[in-house]
Amino acid sequence: MEQRISTIFEQYINEQLEQVIISNSADPDQISKVKIRPVILKQTIKYQATSYCGQKVLHDNFDKEGLLLKLPEWFEGLFKQIEIRSAYGQVNVMISKKGKVTIKEKKAKLEKKDDTSDASWQPLQPIKVQEHNRKKRYIIEEGTPVPFLVDLGIMSIEGKIVHAKYDKFKQINRFLEFIEDILPSFEKKEKVSIIDFGCGKSYLTFAMYYYLRELKGYNVSITGLDLKKDVIQTCNELKDRYGYEDMRFLQGDIASYEGTDHVDMVVTLHACDTATDYAMAKAYRWGAKVILSVPCCQHEFNKTMGNENLNCVLQYGLIKERMAALATDALRANLLECLGYKVSVMEFIDMEHTPKNILVRAVRKPKTLSSKEQAKMVTEYKKCIEYLNVNPTMYQLLKDELD
């Protein structure tokens, strides 16, 4: 590596650095660009290198010495351009195909001493280093023990989050943010009934009750439903231990559940395949004001979906599977729109944790759709399912209401 590049970095990599952009890659498919900026990690200045590798963005943190050791990897035949911005000035470095290095440096204005002698080199204004590890606000905060989180192994008895369970802790708080958004749909003085289909170990079911009842003061009753008898028994034991009187867990199947004729909110997280369709159909018929669903394992469309105009895309099994899953969720959301809900399709948690991360949130609109509006939307929906050659379970369940 050219010694002058190393010298430039030694001069400019300090607390006055604003940003470094390393670009003009000889192999963009491997790594197209790197951005470097100073951050504070545990009260120590580090230099965060953000590398752009195709569709991936990777982050690495270095001290100054570690960053200087990284330079040969970048500049021995890979990158040909550097831009450095600092309170001390700006530097541009260009490397030709033959390896010739051209450096253009523009220094910042100097502040002169009172005796008008040559000033030591000082920036006009110091750069404010970003606090990288600032504490994120969580609805359930770390530091205060929460009984159900302790029993479920997410939190220690001192209130610290178990490292291996931190993703689950973030998932719970992310889910509660969605709950927070729909609170205007309910009145505190009213009894709010909630059903959680496919509740499993009930991390989120207990979180809902704790948040709505204990933190926000809502009068809620929650029913969790799951097929596994041992899971249901454990959950009932836990809710009794916590004194959660308006909470119960039942063993049963979503499709056959008939335990109520009215529910205010239906939650269905990772209910497999068409179980989500049954849950959404029941929610509509029960007059649910809110539906929160994270679908899972959408196999139905993959069996029949096809159109000769899409053959060049659907000939690849993996692509067809993913398109079928996305089409399933999109058509579920659209059908709920046809039924008078305002629907949002959002990312539940980061893709790095799970690919099953789409959350469908439906809130019933206060104003009923006119028959003309609904007919137009249903006609467009039918054209779409005909084009894709699919016959959604949710449409079959609600066909009479729509027609």
Mean pLDDT: 85
How would the global form be characterised? globular
Kindly state the percentage of residues in helix: 25-40%
- SS-based class: alpha/beta
Please, how many helices?
12
Low-pLDDT residue intervals, each spanning 5 or more residues: 112-120, 350-354
Oligomeric state of the chains in view: single chain
Distance between the termini: 72 Å
Beta-strand residue fraction: 25-35%
Order of helices and strands: HEEEEHEEEEHHEHEHEEHEHHHEEHH
Rounded to an integer in angstroms, the radius of gyration calculated over CA atoms is: 28 Å
Number of strands: 15
Give the biggest sheet: 8 strands, mixed
What does this structure look like?
Helix content is 35%, strand content 27%. The chain is α/β, with parallel strands linked by helices. The strands form two sheets. Strands 1, 2, 3, 4, 5, 6, 7 and 8 form an eight-stranded mixed β-sheet that branches. Strands 11-10-9-12-13-15-14 form a seven-stranded mixed β-sheet, sandwiched between helices. β2 and β3 form a beta hairpin. The protein is globular. It starts with a helix and ends with a helix. The relative contact order is 0.07.
List the helices and strands and how they pair.
Layout: H1 3-12, E1 17-25, E2 33-41, E3 44-53, E4 56-62, H2 64-75, E5 79-86, E6 89-95, E7 101-107, E8 130-131, H3 147-151, H4 166-182, E9 191-197, H5 203-215, E10 219-226, H6 229-242, E11 247-251, E12 265-272, H7 275-285, E13 290-296, H8 300-304, H9 311-314, H10 317-338, E14 341-347, E15 358-364, H11 371-388, H12 393-402
Parallel strand pairs: 2-8, 9-10, 9-12, 10-11, 12-13
Antiparallel strand pairs: 1-2, 1-5, 2-3, 3-4, 5-6, 6-7, 13-15, 14-15
Helix pairs in contact: 4-5, 7-12, 10-11
